[in-house]
From TrEMBL:
It comes from the Bacteria. GO terms for molecular function: magnesium ion binding; thiamine-phosphate diphosphorylase activity. This is Thiamine-phosphate synthase. The keyword Thylakoid does not apply. The gene is thiE. InterPro entries: Aldolase_TIM (IPR013785), ThiamineP_synth_sf (IPR036206), ThiamineP_synth_TenI (IPR022998), ThiD2 (IPR041397), TMP_synthase (IPR034291), TMP_synthase_cyanobac_bac (IPR016229).
Amino acid sequence: MKEAGYYDESTNGVVVMVEPYSQKELIQQVVYRILDANLDRAREGLRIIEEWCRFGLNNAQLSGECKHLRQEIAVWHTTELRAARNTPGDRGTELTHPQEEQRSSVKSLLQANFCRVQEALRVLEEYGKLHHPNMGPAFKQMRYRVYTLESNLMGYQRQQMLWRSRLYLVTSPTETLLTTVEAALKGGLTLVQYRDKTADDSLRLEQATKLCQLCHSYGALFVVNDRVDLALAVDADGVHLGQQDMPIATARQLLGPQRLIGRSTTNPDEMQQAIAEGADYIGVGPVYETPTKLGKAAAGLEYVSYAAANSSIPWFAIGGIDANNINDAIDAGAERVAVVRSLMQAEQPTLVTQYLLSQLNRIKPET
């Protein structure tokens, strides 16, 4: 960019005197560079998101929305703005941050690029007001559409993972909590619930944070038992509610539409009510008597068979299921099971996980 004041510019050996920009023109060029940089940033971020929607999720609707947004942004990326680009003189190209050097999971990659796009659109909305009267309102609406896209994409991805999950680990307090869960994740586990009824909140927050990061690094879903506030604090994928916990509608209002909500059920009436209230999945049990549900009679395999014939949402048979009786639950109609002691107390959680999944994966996939 030419600086204010007279100076020489040499081209092919010919020295030419160049008129300076006026102060107004200088500001205009700066605005053009800001718009050009953020138009590039928004389009690049959307393309990264679009590729996952297309190849990772095979979702034409979400990838189509990304493409339409990119095309709308491209209309504003005029030759005039591109001409103001000065990459060699841009000090910002040398700036970086350690978090940008690596991504721990697809989720973190998507979240980083959604932030990138949203920030760029906000810049375009504000500086665009200096460039064209319609640019600010146009990018304001695009920013809201990206918020909706993020919600829809993350919600869709969680739902897809939920439907694919066959084995669900509900944790219990133990000194080896993290190592046990990681061993199960190495065996192919894709859904974990953090459950601790006795720890103080500071410990729960610490453990839930570490477990959430661990699960996401393996591409697994992470859910918190009972506590909506804790689920939000650690950016969990959802919450699991018992019959005595808050209503599903209240939890949905707090969590938003993109996170998962599960509900424990012990009989057909509770199952139908949970489905009607908008639960994303249900627990069906206890199938057998279990010390994790002291004083609660077993629902038995009959309830498992009822759920197999009547549930329209994913459900997990739970309660006393282990390697010795999992096939009885499967024979009764279970396609997904949740376990506690059979993994949390296992000497080799990885091998037990692999065995349980091998039994569940013999079931014909849902269509």
